Prior knowledge:
Chain A is mostly helical and 132 residues long. Chain A is 76% helix and 0% strand.
Amino acid sequence: MTDAPRERPLSPHTTIWRWHLTMATSILHRASGCALYGGGLILAIWAMTLAAGPEAYGTFKAVMGSFPGKIVMFGLTLATFYHLAKGLQHLIWDAGHGYNLKTATMGAIATIAFAIAATLAVWIIAAMTGAL
Amino acid sequence: MASYRTPLGRARGLGAAKHGVGAWIAERVTAVALVPLVLWAVFAGLRLAATDYYGAVEWLTSSMVNPVLMGLFIIVGFMHMHAGLRVVIEDYIEKHLTRAGLLLLNLFACSLIGALAVFSILKVALGGAY
Lengths: 132, 130
């Protein structure tokens, strides 16, 4: 056993590969997951202010209903649907299917399309039901 | 046949501890559970955004479905948050002490905040809000 750390072999990283859709959506999956970690904290604050009473809950709703609050919620909606769709593709991959290049790329396109469509649908429903 | 390997050499030759598979499966199991839960939560969010404090309390107290699903969503969601960020920390943080500290922080934060959120839901659902 030597004291000096051994030089470890490094796998090719982002700087070497040409960007392609499956790679970009894979990185976005992790990024959206990290964003949703913040979303989980907002969910906890919602529950805690609700338990604290009308005044605290009113403050929470005012903050989330403000323009910056709505931007955050819109981003979290997009991150939710994106992470959901890409997560499903990852589960299919984990099961050993869908590795065909064409299938994988189609899945990436479907993920982006679903995330945008579902987010817009939810916000249109929100506008129609007075949730905004 | 007698082994000529030192105990350290033998331990090193064993490879991975084989504990990683449990964490890997936990991330997937919570992911599968979250598929229906998150779809329900989006509709719940739409309902809750359109109402005020009293509407939200009504929503949690009128039946067993909403508080139970919300409690499950929080528990499974926070387990998945823990599992997910754990992998991110393990992938990017090389420095041993920083990594261990962040892994502990991730576990403690998810446990504490998740417990606070679940307790809050129970408090409101069981009638302590008014």
